[in-house]
Amino acid sequence: MVDASVLDILIPVVLGVYSLAYAIYSIIVLRGPTVPDMVLALDVMTVDLIVIYLLIALFYNSPMLAIGAIPLASWILILDLVVAKYLMEARRK
Amino acid sequence: MSPLIILLLSAFSSVMALVATIKILYERDVLKTIIISGVESLFYSIILAAFLAPDLLIAYIAIGLGLNSAILLYALRGGERFEEAA
Amino acid sequence: MIDIILFAVGTILLVLSSILSLIGAVGFLRFRNFFLRLHPATVGSIGGGVYGLIGIALIALSLDIPDYVKYYVFGVALISAALVVFGSPTGSHLLARAAYRSGEARPEPIIRDKLKEAGLK
Fold this sequence. Notes:
By secondary structure, chain A is mostly helical. Chain A has helices at about 5-30, 35-60, 70-90. Chain C contains 4 helices and no strands.
């Protein structure tokens, strides 16, 4: 068994890099020139957010925090599907 | 003891939620405002995760990001996408 | 012994995945139109997300923490990785198809549009 105090060094470093990527994605989502750019950046930002949730849950030793990752991961596909369907219907009109 | 990076992340998220709200006010494309409101609920959910509130977190993700966007996009099918300038 | 190997593999995957996520974010800023931005989106979601989730699962399995925390985080990480693997490429392809056919995003610096030459409506 590896000692759990390794996490005190490992998690803040990895979390810092992920937070930097998260900040850049959030700027792209608010700026993005077209609508598909924003939705694509929202997808990748959601994936980063899942990793951040699991890191926070592992850091606090609180497993109930991790359950938010599953609905978040399943809404990626559904948001893409809804926006794509709206765009195709708006073309047909 | 919470490390500095989690507090910094939640502070950044709250500032970006304010920026997103201000951007929604001045945006004329309704489709973009729906997507930005989904992003805003993502920013709030990271604050809820940093302050250890998992029950609110699950409800906020399922309703704020998912159901809200789907219902508003479904309602937008019957209307105009661009607002005229006031 | 097996725990140390699991922890080393998980840490390598997690650090590699964080660097790939940063590379994907910078590529998102630098590329010019939507269809080029599909490439850094793949780097950011598969390289930056799924590898990191598998790394978190391996790290949680090898740590000295209570059993319910360990298996809970392990299961949630693997289920999220499976959902992202199935969901993210499918969503990107759907979005690219809708964006091309509805004229929402134009491939702006373009040499040849073979889809238009083939008579796609």
